[in-house]
Amino acid sequence: MQLGIDNSVAAAGIWRNILMGSRAERSLDLERLRDLINTEVRNLRQRKIQGKLSLSNTPKPNWEDMN
Predict the structure, then answer these.
(1) Residues near 30 by beta carbon (within 8 Å), at least 6 away in sequence
(2) What are 16-66's pLDDT values in tens digits?
(3) What's the whole-number mean pLDDT along residues 4-12?
(4) Residue 40 CB contacts under 8 Å (≥ 6 apart), including other chains
């Protein structure tokens, strides 16, 4: 029996693969995938707290000019 949360983990894994440049395929080992995503989120959160998480040096869009 597959839980509804498993679909969410699988979808997050597919998007993670797309963002990382890998093939968008469904992982069969959802427990490993859940741990991997949890670790990545924890690392991103820690980098944000330390002030080390930033976007590249691209200029911010001027929203007023986009009208």
Answers:
(1) 6, 9, 10, 13
(2) 888 888 887 777 778 888 888 889 889 989 988 888 877 666 666 676 666
(3) 80
(4) 16
DSSP state of 2: -
Enter the tokens of residue 9.
């983990």
User: What is the identity of the amino acid at 10?
Assistant: A
Write the DSSP assignment of 3-65 as a string of letters: -HHHHHHHHHHHHHHHHHTS-----S-HHHHHHHHHHHHHHHHHHHHHT-----SPPPP-GGG
CA 22/CA 37 separation, integer angstroms: 15
CB 2 within 8 A of CB 25: no
Residue 16 and residue 37 in contact, taking contact as beta carbons nearer than 8 Å: yes
Q: Could you give the CA distance from residue 2 to residue 30 in angstroms, rounded to a whole number?
A: 11
